[in-house]
Amino acid sequence: MSPQTAPKPMIDRSHHVGGSWHWQGFTQMAQYKKIVISEANGCWLTTDSGKRLFDGVASLWCNVHGHRHPKIDAAIRDQLDRVAHITTLGMSADVTEILASRIVEITPGDLSHVFFSSDGSSSVEAALKMALQYWHQRKDPRPKKTDYLALSLAYHGDTTGSVSLGGIKFFHQLFAPIVFTPVRGPLPCSYRLPDGVTPDAACDHYADEVESLLKQHHETLAAVVMEPLVQGAAGMITHPKGFLSRIRKLCDKYEVLLICDEVATGFGRTGRLFACNHESVTPDIMCLGKGLTGGYLPMAATVARPHVFDAFLAKTSESKQFFHGHTFGGNPLAAAAAIASIDLFTESNLVESIDAKASLLRSSLDPIQGHPHVGDIRGRSMMVGIELVQNRETKTAFDSADLFGQKVCQRATELGVWIRPLGDVVILMPPLIATDDDLKMVGKVVCQAIQEVVPSL
């Protein structure tokens, strides 16, 4: 029997479902009430018990076009009839070449050389090594440039190098013995401002802090690494407008590369295709992931400008090639999904519709605007964080042991909307295709969950 006519393999989907064999990330398995999804369609998930849940965080911020989109499904099926996987170390797939050209077309400025990996953490890891090797190999080498500047409460992933950049205690502190220490920049938060700093002066204040560090460390700094506009895992920390463009200018002034981590902010989340578009910034290196394939398959990309790429060009005998590579980097199935996802952006007015959707989502949260324990509703466009606080006037946080964020999300799930908190910040990041009715429903459920779980204490 040929592979084309063999019966489709069947999976016994009842086997071991509900056990603890699957060890899940960032999940306390001792207290976890398992949720198992058996199928999904559009913005909706269906559990193995038949309960429907709205995917309020787009399956960890990546499912921009919803589940089972016919165009992406078809692209993957078509690619299955061609080739599922080959290495990109020394060869490539035609579909991967096409994807690289498409990424160059849509990314800002002269970003023009695409290195593929499997996830956002890996894309950042590649960027760190790329920056360091660049400074060693360019025409006027600067081998002392081996350090990095990262913002406070940074999160850039979970691999060793990306963890080193991190500044979130519970994510990173335990691993201090095996990581390097970056130069730590400010937390450019628009909600909790330093004493005496007004909202109008915040951008200047934070940029001046970064410049002070660059003056002191620029001779040893390879790059500034930052999430543009919004620090997602930090709790949707939202930067003052203009901060990103100021950092770009400072990096040029002090001869330091700028690495922008757009793993979370890219592909429409902030109301532009990339967050850097808001301030007309082209980083030296851009990291992409999550929404690249529409949330279908693991794929990430590290995209560099020509001056970075050119430092790696030489005779093979000189050993200047990029000393980094991934088994599944540029995987053809993932590349097919990514091309279809990019097509959906370029063939429709999806990006142009995002700000209107975001406005509707935020207006649906009006019932909690004055809630005594809702300190801030922030973010950019379809990236929304609702911070719960003990005291709205003083911005005093709750005791973390109270788990109010988690309890609100549990209640929202009972009401039919699946969301996850970051501490006491309730995160909303629905698929970009969510309808007006979907978004109104999400807002209504979240307001009800907050009002029930965190009444006026």
UniProtKB/TrEMBL annotation:
It is found in: Cytoplasm. This is Adenosylmethionine-8-amino-7-oxononanoate aminotransferase. Pathway: Cofactor biosynthesis; biotin biosynthesis; 7,8-diaminononanoate from 8-amino-7-oxononanoate (SAM route): step 1/1. Homodimer. The lineage of its organism: Bacteria, Pseudomonadati, Planctomycetota, Planctomycetia, Pirellulales. The modification N6-(pyridoxal phosphate)lysine is found at residue 290. It comes from Novipirellula herctigrandis. Pyridoxal 5'-phosphate binds at residues 120-121, 261, 326-327. Belongs to the class-III pyridoxal-phosphate-dependent aminotransferase family. BioA subfamily. It catalyses: (8S)-8-amino-7-oxononanoate + S-adenosyl-L-methionine = S-adenosyl-4-methylsulfanyl-2-oxobutanoate + (7R,8S)-7,8-diammoniononanoate. The gene is bioK.
